[in-house]
Each structure stands twice: as C-alpha cells, then as structure tokens.
Amino acid sequence: MTLGCPQLLPANASRQACSWHTTAEHYRQLQEIAYLNQHGSTSISTTALMLIYPLSVCFHQLATTALSRHLGQRFAQSRLMEFILAVLPMTLGFSTPHRVWTILANLSGVCAALFALSAEPLSWLPIITRMRAMRAVRREGESLASFSRIDTAGYKLRFVAEYRAVVMITTCIAILAVDFPSVFPRSHAKTEEYGFSLMDLGTGCVVCSSAVCSRAARGIKQDRSTCTTFRRIVGLWPILLLGCVRLVALWGIDYHVPTSEYGVHWNFFFTIAVVAMTSSAADLGPSACAISGLLVLSIYQLFLSSAGGAEYILTAPRVGMFSANREGILGCAGHLGIHWLSVSLGSLISSSTKPPHLITWRVLMLAFCGIGTALLLDTIGMPPSHRMCNLTYSVFIVGINALVLGSLAVLDLYWPWQRQPLPSIYGGVQDSLLATFLLANLLTGAINVTMQPLLMPPWAGHLVISVYSIAWSLPFSILRSRGIALKFW
To answer: Mind listing the pLDDT tens digit for each residue in 427-452?
Structure first.
C-alpha cells in the first residue's frame, strides 16, 4: 500500500485521502489493513535516517549562531525558535522517511552554506591550522580537544545528552506520524515478521538510550545486599503501574493495537520493567554486561532458529496467558541483550582514562561492526525481526545507536567555534525520557480517539504532527528551565 487512503488501491493511487470521516465500523476495518508491512524498507535507507541526527544538531548550532549575530541572542534562543531550529527538521525528516535522501541533501546544503557564512574568508586559515595541530598532537598519543559538558560538575557529556534527546524526540514523532498514511509510507511501519523499518527501531533505541547512561555504564558501584536489590526492584512500581493503566485504558476505549506487536495484554512498559528488574538483580559490571548480552542473544537466537521458537511466535494459536503474549514475554530476552550491550557501550563513552578522539573512533568502529554484522546475518538468511527481537535486530539496534553517538561525538569534538547552549527542549527531554514517552503516547491516543488520521490528507497530517510535537515538547522545555526532571527509570 502506498501513500494515500489505506484501502486496497492500485500503486498509482492518489495521495489525497478518500474522505475525512467514516463510520466507526468501517474505520476499524481500515485499521486492520493500514499498518500491515510485510516486507519493510531497505537497510540502507533505514541506516541513512540516522544521519539526520548530526545534521539537525549542526543546523541548530549554525542557525542559532547566525540569528544571535543579526537578531540577538534572546530571540535566537527563544522557545519558538528552539522548536523551529532544533525539533522541526527532525519532525519533517522522521514523519516522511521515504524522502530521506532529499532531506539529507537539503540539510547538508543548508549547513554548508551557513558554515561558509559563519567562517569569514580570513578565518579559514586559522581553522585549518588548528585542525592540523590537533591531528599532530593526536599522533603523539595526546589530545588537545575534549568533549563538551552540560553540567557545572563536568560529568554529563553534551553529545550523549543530545543523543538521548534526539532519539526520544524522533520516537515520539514517529509513533503519531505512522497513523497518517498520506504522509508516512507503509514500508516504514512496523514489520509483521521480518525486515528493516523506521518504526521497528523505536523500542530498541529507547532501551539502548537508557542503558548508555545507567549506573552500571557510568561505573557507579551499588550495594549488592539482598535488601538493597529488593528495594531497587520494588522501586520500579511506577513502570508496572503505567503498563497496567495503559492496558486498562486501551481495553476500556476499544483502542486498536495490533496483537502481533507485543501480544494481547503485553505492552512496552512491561518489557521495560522486566529488563530493569533483571539487570538490577544481576547488577553486572560493564565487561560482564558485554559478555552476558552476547550470550543471552546467542542462546535466544538458537531457541528461535533451532528449537522452533520463531514458528511458535509467528504462528502458534493464542491459548492461555503466555501464548497470548508470547511476543512481548519472549522478546524481553532480546531487549535484555540490547540493554547489557548498551551498558558496555556507555562504559566506553564514560571512560576517563582514554583520550576523547580514541573513544570516538572506537564507538564508530562498534557502529560499523554492529551494522555490518546485521547486514551479514540478513544476507545469509537471518533477517531482523522486531516482533521476535532476534539477534540480527538486536545487533542492528546497538550498531545504529553507536553510529548516532559516534557522529555526534565527532561533531562535538571537532566543532571549530564555541558551541551554542544545549536547547532547553533537548535538555528537558533527556532529563525525563520515560515521562516524555508517556506524554507523547497519551497525546497520540487522544488524537486517534478524537480524529481519524488514516483518512486525513497530507497537509492536514503535517499540521497535526507539528502541533502535536509542540504540545509534548514545550512542557519539558519549561521544566528544564526550572531545573525539574521527571525520572521513572
């Protein structure tokens, strides 16, 4: 099904909606077919979407500098301009992922023009000289440059905060954009069984972004007594409560949720709770996390490939509570593997004994290994499956997250001028990841209950998505300016 009204139309169907409204019964029938995605997109286009992140951050920095110079810093750093410069490019990019190459070309061109205007002709020579000097020093095993920090104590790395923020921002954008087939292509909706797509990345990226900054990743030792571990596990009750509230609320309003995603009763909040409980109980160090993550994923893949696990998840009848929720329950093994591998990745980033440029290139090497391994496994007949959270999917998730982290680290390390302050929207979102995800889900549900987005034309879809992005991002920008963070995990 192409862009347009979600009915069984020919490939050259009009991109305009068939109608603005229909009966509830007919709309439910449309929902049953609107999200089907049997084949997914390509691995290249899915990976290319990750390049929008560093280009968006680069665009914000350059545009803010230009506006501050000509219109004043107060105007350039206002909340409206922050949204336009920091969030809107990603809103446009991740609500229309089929246009990824056009978006990358446009962002690159605009950034190149702003960069050229920011660096006056006589300043190019000092910039080149400084970069050569940095390269010479690095060859001797030292480093002149260091990563930017966003706190007075100097513990929080700026590029990590940007990574956590942009991943969550685009996750929130995509969960609504997918409901507008006139805007969002079906090839990037969640795949039914196997394949690469944008929507498949969301849950894995949320798990990864949380693990990268976990206590284990930062090397903070915890009391391993049974009582303390029990208290940490009990402290996860807000996440379990959110999962139960979501289950009851969706059941009460008869909200359409495909059972192939997590099952009949399961949802992502339950997955987060299981991963958090298991990792808290195990309380492994970074090296042990890397080994355990690979071990869990390998054993789980053996179960899927050799013990009939894949056939069970994809085709078994839903009889009993376990089989009714087999995707969500069994998929916790894959998400746990992603979590532990991401803890090891976060430990590498947090290392204070290695020079920044070495950390950066090691992260990029991990990205190359993760993405390359996923492509190799796909080539030999083991395609990625978000539904099962198999080995290919898991290493691809870790790889693309390492790619985003590495590219943002390069941008931060080699930026030739003093960087503009971190946007308050970025700061607010990365301070309150799960709260942001919750608010975006609530607004997405409200929009789907009060409107029929599957039938809306492109211009209306873009308008709703843009207003929605302002609605959930503005509160966290305000909270950031007041020093308030909402943390559940």
So the answer is: 999 988 888 988 998 899 889 888 88
Does the model's pTM come out above 0.85?
yes
Contact between 33 and 58 under an 8 Å Cβ cutoff? The reply is no
The 3 state secondary structure assigned to the chain is: CCCCCCCCCCCCCCCCCCCCCCCHHHHHHHHHHHCCCCCCECHHHHHHHHHHHHHHHHHHHHHHHHHHHHHCHHHHCCHHHHHHHHHHHHHHHHHCHHHHHHHHHHHHHHHHHHHHHHCCHHHHHHHHHHHHHHHHHHHCCCCCCCCCECCCCCCCEHHHHHHHHHHHHHHHHHHHHCCCCCCCCHHHCCCCCCCECCCCHHHHHHHHHHHHCCCCCCCCCCCCCHHHHHHHHHCCHHHHHHHHHHHHHHHHCCCCCCHHHHCCCCCHHHHHHHHHHHHHHHCCCHHHHHHHHHHHHHHHHHHHHHCCHHHHHHHCCCCHHHHHCHHHHHHHHHHHHHHHHHHHHHHHHHCCCCCHHHHHHHHHHHHHHHHHHHHHHHHCCCCCCCCCCCHHHHHHHHHHHHHHHHHHHHHHHCCCCCCCCCCHHHHHHHHCHHHHHHHHHHHHHHHHHHCCHHHCCHHHHHHHHHHHHHHHHHHHHHHHHCCCCCCCC
CA 30, 36, 42, 44: dihedral to nearest 10 degrees?
70
| Residue type at position 295 | L
What is the average per-residue pLDDT within 16-32?
67
What digits encode the pLDDT tens for the residues 276-325? 889 888 888 889 999 999 999 999 999 999 999 999 999 889 888 999 99
Q: Of the candidates 409, 171, 386, which has an alpha carbon nearest to the alpha carbon of residue 260?
A: 386
